[in-house]
Write a structure and sequence with these properties.
Strand content: over 45%
Largest sheet: 7 strands, mixed
Order of helices and strands: EEEEEEEEEEE
Number of strands: 11
Structural class: mainly beta
C-alpha cells in the first residue's frame, strides 16, 4: 500500500515563500512522475508543476515556483516564491509509481495580508 503525505502548507503574506513536501511510503517501485496540482474554491484542479522525463510548469507559476525531487527519499518538493493571493488553493501531490497513480491528501496554502 502506497501513501503520499504532504506538509508545508500554511498562511503567508503576498510576496512571501513556502516550501511544500510530499513523501511516498509503502511498497515503492519505480516513480516515473512526481507532480503538484492545486484546486482553488469553485475551480477545477489544475496542474502546477511536474517532474518526469521533463520538467513542466503552469504559465501562472513560471519563474516563481520550482519543483525538485529526492529519489532516494521518494520525496518531491515545491518551492513557492513571490506568492500571490491567486495562489491560494489546496495543493495536492501526485505520483505515478510502477504504472499506478497516487494522490496526497492535500495541504492548504493561503496567501493573504
Amino acid at each position: 500500500q502506497v501513501q503520499l503525505v504532504e506538509s508545508g502548507g500554511g498562511l503567508v503574506q503576498p510576496g512571501g515563500s513556502l516550501r511544500l513536501s510530499c513523501a511516498a511510503s509503502g511498497s515503492i517501485g519505480s516513480i516515473l512522475v512526481m507532480a503538484w496540482y492545486r484546486q482553488a474554491p469553485g475551480k477545477q484542479r489544475e496542474s502546477v508543476a511536474s517532474s518526469g522525463a521533463s520538467t513542466n510548469y503552469a504559465d501562472s507559476v513560471k519563474g516563481r515556483f520550482t519543483i525538485s525531487r529526492d529519489n532516494a527519499k521518494n520525496t518531491v518538493y515545491l518551492q513557492m516564491n513571490s506568492l500571490k493571493p491567486e495562489d491560494t488553493a489546496v495543493y495536492y501531490c501526485r505520483m505515478i509509481i510502477t504504472g499506478r497513480q497516487y494522490w496526497g491528501q492535500g495541504t492548504q496554502v493561503t496567501v493573504s495580508s
